Amino acid sequence: MIITLTHTDTSEIANALLKARSRLGSASGLVLTLIVAAEQRSFAKAYAAAQTAAREHPCRLVLVVKTAGKTDRLDADIHLAEDVPGEVIVLRLSGEVREHAESVVLPMLLPDSPVVMWWPSNAPDTPGDDVLGQLADRRITDAASSSDPIKALEVRAIHHSPGDTDLTWTRLTLWRALLTAALDQYPMRILSATVVGPRNNAPANLMAAWLESRLKVSVTRKPSAGPGITSVKLETPGGDIVIAREDGKTASYAIPGQPRRTVALKRRDINELLTEELRRLDADDVYAAALAALLTREGQPLPEPEPVRKRKEAGAIAAARVAKTGARAGSRKAARVQEALSRQDPPLHVAHAHAAGAS
Amino acid sequence: MFEPVWNNHYVDHVQITMAEDIGVGGRASYYDGIGAARDVIQNHLLQLLALTAMDEPISFDATNLRREKQKVLSAVVTPKRHDLHTARGRYAGGWTGGRQVVGYVEEEGFKATSTTETYAALRVDIDSRRWAGVPFYLRAGKRLPRRVTEIALGFKKAPHLPFTATDTHDLGRNALVMRIQPDEGVTLRFGAKVPGTQMEIRDVNMDFGYGDSFTESSPEAYERLLLDVLLGDPPLFPQQEEVELGWQILDPVLDYWASLKNPPEDYESGTWGPASAHEMIARDGHAWRRP
Q1: What local confidence, expressed as pLDDT, does residue A340 receive?
Q2: Of A63, A167, A305, B247, which is least surrounded by CB within 10 A?
């Protein structure tokens, strides 16, 4: 059933949800809140992808659409289905409400549960500073949706904060699993590595950066026609470990001293990528290390630890004050305070770290 | 079923929240001089605290219920350092829930010298065998993101977990949450293993909602009280003793706040309270739940 509310506010939306849910009699087994910053043109695609992800992770889906309307208003559609757990709330903001998206989204977050934010396209340069991004524990962007994915990935690397992730990284998961499995079966010293893929293929660049950060060897990047990454080769003294995929669907998997095998390695669509990203909700340290390696490969300087930016949310100011007046660094109290602040809503690692460094 | 864990061996801290999303609505002249603490904490939240923390009464008649409530309320103490363990705030104008709203100082009937708070938070402790060492955090406020009243018991983390750090990285704290309004019910929050081949633990909710199990709606708050008056049945009415105990608990805090020169700290309408409230609880190593 779909409930439409016009010229509304979040209290009315909350009441409508309550009444509707009691009519359906569904219990709240929802595990997270997924906020999607959808655009009107690509709304259907974003909606479909989020719905698929919600099937594996029953969640409250909040789609935030900024419309071009001039009057200050908030319209909402609530979609509830008997067979699918979870609820979908589409919020359409027009006029000045567009500038205050967090005031509309904050009341809609599920109690206690983690919050994930996804930008299908036009992600901000610094997701961690975005008003909606600050509400989320995990922020998902997609470099492939921009016109220059390589540049977009670099921007991600420069402005990375814990909890950020990009679907470019998710596209590499199956490749990384195969490579690590190969090294499990054939543990040898790696001399060098080569990644082959189209020139403007961001996943290939990220793959090269990841190999460099994990293996500490030189990684060459060679061009090819594609589609996607066409091969990854790890050179060892006893032979080469090669995963080659020419058709974008199946790959041949060769380890020295073993027969060549065929492995399914298709290029996955956005629905699958998003579903996988929702499986783990903690900060991805391996991804952060790969991004840092990407910057060194491009010859870019690594970003400074983020300076304290003026943030309005109370928690950041609190972090600074407590760190200055309260615990000494390294004491158990400091550790507890830090842990408590990192559980505040939204996360405060940066402000606290800076404040602790400053005190 | 919960009696064995309903004590300081298992419970880490308790948060009692009463949040409203409306402001004073043009009645600042009435609200002025009263404030969130007198309006809501002294009566409603302390009653909720008494009902949560009390021992089981012998029966449900008025005398026995009151005995237990008085016993627990007489054991409640506020910490000596009011500056560290209380917080108050006043909502500032802004956007909340999709509408633009004015701040308390711009409300009709506001007096320029007013130091009335629209948000109050404090920590109390209960000096009893059952609850010593468990802080109870009470907070109430207007113009918070949504209307909710709940009691949340956070349980202690297990001293040893057989999982590796990465498996339980995003695991929160186990909790038992009693929602008083709007969606009456009880939620148990704990970790469960995600189906699949790898070891990954995720927080899930076990939820009971009155609206789901009972289709007859509960009577409105004051309907029940009027019925009790007509029947002459007083267990829900606090007696003089309880009311006095409530004021005894709150008076030191109110006196301290009255002695402060500056007005309450501003917090933006539509957020969960002022910075001092977050600091207050972070000092003890806890964090406010997002209800």
Answers
A1: 60
A2: A305
Number of domains in chain A: 2
Residue A290 has pLDDT above 70, yes or no: yes
In B47-147, beta strands by DSSP E: 76-77, 86-92, 94-96, 99-101, 119-126, 136-141
* CB–CB contact B203 A31 (8 Å): yes
Residue A193 has pLDDT above 90, yes or no: yes
The average pLDDT across B148-162 equals 90
Window A:156-215, CB contacts with B under 8 Å: none
Whether B44 is a known active-site residue: answer yes
Contact residues, A window 84-143, toward B, CB-based 8 Å cutoff? 93, 96-97, 99-100, 103-104, 106-107, 109, 111-114, 137
The helix (H) or strand (E) run that includes residue A213 is helix A202-215
Average pLDDT, chain A: 82
Residues A103 and A196 in one domain: no
- Identify the pLDDT of residue A334: 53
Cβ within 8 Å, pair A29-B204: yes
Domain boundary among A116, A139, A167: A167
Closest chain A residue to B183, measured at CA: A18
Domain presence at residue A84: yes
DSSP A301: P
On whether both A152 and A44 belong to a single domain, the answer is yes
Q: Which domain holds residue A65?
A: 2-167
What average pLDDT does the structure give for chain B? 89
CB atoms within 10 A of CB B93: 18
* Smallest Cα distance from B195 to chain A, Å: 11
Query: Same structural domain for residues A19 and A127?
Result: yes
Does residue A127 fall inside a structural domain? yes
Query: At residue A306, does pLDDT exceed 70?
Result: no
Q: CATH number for the domain including A249?
A: 3.40.30
pLDDT digits (tens, 9 = 90+) for A63-103: 999 998 889 999 999 988 766 667 899 999 999 999 899 99
* A135 and A8 within one domain: yes
Please give the DSSP secondary-structure letter assigned to residue B218: P
Do A63 and A34 lie in one domain? The reply is: yes
- A214 plus A249 within the same structural domain: yes
| H/E run at residue A207 | helix A202-215
SS3 of residue B12 by DSSP: strand
B282 and A109 in contact by Cβ < 8 A? no
With tokens 């087994």, the residue in question is: A29
- Look up tokens 């964090």; give the residue: B287
Examine residue A107 and state whether it is found in any structural domain, yes or no.
Answer: yes
Contact A315, B271 (CB under 8 A): no
Scan residues 41-80 of B and list those with Cβ closer than 8 Å to A: none
Check B44, B85, B169, B278 and give the catalytic one: B44
Whether residue A85 is found in the same domain as residue A111: yes
Do A41 and A190 lie in a common domain?
no
- Let me know if residue A287 belongs to a domain: no
The DSSP bridge pattern shows strands B86-92 and B119-126 to be: antiparallel
Closest partner residue to A314 (CB to CB) among B99, B200, B274 is B274
> A119-150 pLDDT, tens per residue?
998 899 999 999 999 999 999 999 998 899 99
